[in-house]
Amino acid sequence: MTMSIRYATGSRILHWLVAALVFVLVPVGIWMAGRAEMDIFDDLTNTLYAWHKAIGATVLVLMVIRIIVKQRYGSPPYSATLSRRQTVAATSLHHLLYLLLVLTPLLGWAGVTAFPALITLGGYNLPAMPLVPEDQALATRLFEIHGAFALLLATLIIGHIGAALIHLVIRKDGVFQRMWFGRE
Ligand code: HEM
Q1: Dihedral sign of CA atoms 69, 74, 78, 79 in order
Q2: The CATH number of the domain covering residues in 9-76+84-179
Q3: Alpha carbon of 18 to those of 10, 12, 28: distances in Å?
Q4: For atom 10 of ligand 1, which residue has the closest CA?
Q5: What spacing in Å lies between the alpha carbon of 147 and ligand 1's midpoint?
Q6: How many other CB atoms are found less than 10 A from the CB of residue 7?
């Protein structure tokens, strides 16, 4: 059987979709949390929260699908030009990114369940997370951890983008193309 050098089409689409959503989520999260800190609870703040919750919940759903697709189709083998140390470093960073991309939205969802502040776009409510009690102190703690995880995630993503760009621009070794589109 010939192994594709690319990730499965579904994995590639989900990768760029999640990347775009997280790219929006982090600045919107920092912006709205900053406004809440300054006690500005106007229409703009509410809109930012509503979008953040809706997009964050979408990321969680997409990550579940992404993990299923990855389990089903796996990853293409790395080229022999990469050292064992490089492939172990890449795989470890990818696993950490997956973990944070699941835990961060879960913590946000748990926080809005505990607060409770489940209202999102169009006045619809997100479902409450099972087993999470209404408890404001717990919500505050969950939001703190949510924010810390999100910032760690953003930092790791910068490293991830840096590594991808080194492969694309400097090493030109086809690693970037594994996650890209067009002709093989
Ligand atoms: C990958 C997904 C997510 C990322 C990357 C993310 C990122 C962030 C960031 C960067 C902040 C600002 C933290 C700070 O400056 O203190 C934040 C705050 C917040 N997020 Fe998320 N978020 C995600 C998913 C979610 C989800 C699914 C929900 C709820 C359904 C949610 C609800 C909130 C809330 C309510 C706050 C404000 C907390 C506060 O006011 O202290 N987030 N998020």
Answers
A1: negative
A2: 1.20.950
A3: 12, 10, 15
A4: 26
A5: 6
A6: 20
